[in-house]
Amino acid sequence: xxxxxxxxxxxxxxxxxxxxxxxxxMLLPFALLIGNxxxxxxxxxxxxxxxxxxxxxxxxxxxxxxxxxxxxxYSTVGELFTGxxxxxxxxxxxxxxxxxxxxxxxxxxxxxxxxxRLFALGVVVxxxxxxxxxxxxxxxxxxxxxxxxxxxxxxxxxxxxxxxxSTVNFRRxxxxxxxxxxxxxxxxxxxxxxxxxxxxxxxxxxxWIQELNIEWLNRLQPIFCLEAVALIFFGLSWPTKGNIDxxxxxxxxxxxx
Length: 257
Known about the structure:
Blueprint: H1 8-42, H2 78-94, H3 109-125, H4 145-167, H5 185-209, H6 215-219, H7 222-241
């Protein structure tokens, strides 16, 4: 009969962390949109039960559908945005991915997780730029274009590192030098490619299309939608990888004796 070793709890925690990282990323855009909409509809910022209105003017809520996920930093759910990314960064800090084995080339999963953690923190520390004083600005300052550019670079590198993990690191197998032969590997590849495609479309829209000021397209908030799609594919890949991997455990823990 298979028995659980004394390290079984450590394995469960390791795999649960993978699932948590994925779910947090996947649910973030919807939590921000729904949370901001709900707070605005309930007019909580102007409710004296929650807010000391004697020290401020009336709060004027703007559209709940922001131009990007990062712009929720300035809204009523700014703490949810920064808090979720901070938790993801913390999980990535605790997450010890696979290291390169003898004869294996490329970037290790552990290194990519560390880079993703730094980029996630960079997104939190450097807020996106805001071109004008939006009505529902809950922060005492507006970011400059310089910090906005750093934010954009950090967010891009964060998604790129996650895409590399999905297309390369998650698809490594027991045999060194061979990858993409497990049944889930095609799914990881699709997720990684989808994240890269979303990033490319965001860059194309931001640099060339946005300047055309196409009204119907702007109303769709393409950057937010593409970021949400990228986070969904990121979120789908990590819970899938959160299953017990019999073939490639960094510490070679066995669930069967």
